[in-house]
Amino acid sequence: MPDKEQAGSSPLDARAAILSELVDYQEGSIVSRTIIDKKAGTVTLFAFAAGQGLSEHTAPYDALVHVLDGEVEITIAGKPLHVKTGEAVIMPANQPHALRALTNFKMILTMIRS
């Protein structure tokens, strides 16, 4: 039987995990789970139901999106990119970007603050 997650700890602290299994799809919703939240940056898992998305916005730091499952359209500075399972893209700092789930999709978002 797996160890229970302790309050304040990450499900990856000193153990292996399958990232795509740490968040579940919820119809009509976006689900997120923070894995690391430090002054230097964050690592967050997301599960988007098909059709869900994030409207155009900017961030002051580069962000790496790694698609764990499904397909997403990521628009960066007006240029749409079709990103699918196993692929990754960097959303550069201060450039407008938006996401739209083409299918149910899961991603890991890594943001380094520097």
Rounded to an integer in angstroms, the radius of gyration calculated over CA atoms is 14 Å
State which percent range the strand residues make up: over 45%
First-last Cα distance: 40 Å
CATH class label: Mainly Beta
Low-pLDDT runs: 1-7
- How many helical elements? 0
What's the number of domains?
A: 1
What's the helix-strand series? EEEEEEEEE
Q: Can you list the strand order of the major beta sheet?
A: 1-2-9-4-7
Q: For this structure, what is the CATH homologous superfamily?
A: Jelly Rolls
Architecture overview:
The protein has 114 residues and is mainly beta. It has one domain: Jelly Rolls (Sandwich), CATH 2.60.120.10. The chain contains no helices and 9 strands. Strands 1-2-9-4-7 form a 5-stranded antiparallel beta sheet, with no helix packed on it.
How do you describe this structure in short?
It is built from no helices and nine strands. Pfam families: Cupin_2.
What are the defining features of this structure?
four-stranded antiparallel sheet, 0% helix, 114 residues, 9 strands, Jelly Rolls, single chain, mainly beta
Question: What is the topological layout?
Answer:
Blueprint: E1 30-38, E2 41-48, E3 53-57, E4 63-69, E5 71-76, E6 79-84, E7 88-91, E8 97-101, E9 105-112
Antiparallel strand pairs: 1-2, 2-9, 3-8, 4-7, 4-9, 5-6, 5-8
Protein name: Cupin domain protein
Pfam family, one: Cupin_2
Domain Cupin type-2: 45-112
